Amino acid sequence: MEDNSEPEQSSWAHLPDVCLRHVFHWLDDRDRSRAALVCKKWSCAMYSGSLWRRRTITFYGRPSRAHTLELQSALWYVKKFGKYLEHLEIKLSNPYNTAFTQKFQVTMKGLLSHLGKCNSRLVSLSIKYLELDRLIWKNAVRAQFIKNLATFLKRMSKQLDYLNLKGARVTLEEGCELLNSLSCLTNKSFVSEINIEDFFSLHPPVYSSTLFHQAMSKFRSLVILSLNYNCISDELLDILWNSAHSLCTLNIKCHVHDPHGQVVWGMSWANLAKRAPKLNVNFFFERIMKHDHLARILLVEIPVRSISLRSCYFSDPDWTMRPTLTNLLPAYWHVLQKLTLELNNDHELLDDELLQLILSCKRLLFLKVWAFLSVTFIERLLQNRAERKCILTTIKEAPKEWENMRRDEMCQ
């Protein structure tokens, strides 16, 4: 007898669309394309816009065959599904010669041109560590890339909400051109987050630049701004009043090679803090450790939430950390929540001073210490934590190499 009944279907055939899209979400491009060949329903899932909202594209300086195929695939899918893209991250891995930057510039020109024509959803763009001041960037290639990027930012300016160009290393004029492109169409920009840390090359005194002040005056809805201290001035703090209703976070990096001797009045910080009541400021210091240098920057009027002091293994027998711990940082006892100390303090003991600072900071939640401290200090700190004399929730100690260095010092 002939059986005319239909073959029993797998339970996968009845999987709801939302679940199927979730499964596709965890597949890479290659597996997605293979899964799309299973049936019509799965093929339709492949074209779901929710799968193509985020994309990271990595350009490898010395690519393997797998890396080359990965890049080609990523570029193909961005062009095919680019209209759905909302978050784009471009990464450069070990660029090493002019041939690489030339190819990167040409590829990015085509990619940005395509997205500029088909995409109206992009809200986030990240291209970190371009390092355009390196010799691997020929002047013509560099100028063309900046021109293409500025054109793209102009097209996306009405919708873009987040821009990260950390480590771009452009000239002051080029940097201001890129910033101005975000407000070209309306003379205002409503980007909420910008990262321009290490954005400028050659460590210029950006704080005195009229071009920079004019570019920053166009931003009206900043929530988070990351930049170097050589950009900070009374004029910039006044300009940030434009975003006072939304401004929540300033991340400020201060490197020893950046100009940081400018005078910024405490009244300027106080006025900004009054107009932007949600404002928190995070400072990241690299090799700026002397008390007199820090005291010019860390004014009591600043609503400081986090301070990171890194000596980068720098050691100076004439330098002492004690005045900073006992006189400067205690001024933030009511606001400081996070403290990171990476110090080569082999010439002075700081156990008592650091413990007293921790106990005085009533809102301190996070402590990271990479320094020469005794075991007794850790025991005392944990005992005070157990007795609820401080509210620390996270304590990170020195890595192994610091412990080995200290052991060597003690043996000598």
Short description:
The protein has 412 residues and is an alpha/beta fold.
Q: Architecture of the largest domain in CATH?
A: Alpha-Beta Horseshoe
- CATH class category of the largest domain: Alpha Beta
| Count of discrete domains | 2
Distance between the termini: 95 Å
Cα-based radius of gyration, to the nearest Å = 26 Å
> How many E strands?
12
CATH topology of the largest domain: Leucine-rich repeat, LRR (right-handed beta-alpha superhelix)
Structural class: alpha/beta
The whole-number mean of residue pLDDT values reads 89
Percentage of residues in helical conformation: 25-40%
Question: Largest sheet, if any?
Answer: 12 strands, parallel
Strand content: 15-25%
Q: For this structure, what is the CATH homologous superfamily of the largest domain?
A: Ribonuclease Inhibitor
State the shape.
Answer: globular
Q: Order of strands across the widest beta sheet? A: 1-2-3-4-5-6-7-8-9-10-11-12
Describe this protein's structure.
It is a single chain. With about 400 residues, the chain is of the alpha/beta class. It has two domains: about 40 residues, Monooxygenase, CATH 1.20.1280; about 350 residues, Ribonuclease Inhibitor (Leucine-rich repeat, LRR (right-handed beta-alpha superhelix)), CATH 3.80.10. Strands 1-2-3-4-5-6-7-8-9-10-11-12 form a twelve-stranded parallel beta sheet. Helix 9 links the parallel strand 6 and strand 7. Helix 6 packs parallel to helix 7, helix 7 packs parallel to helix 8 and helix 13 runs parallel beside helix 14.
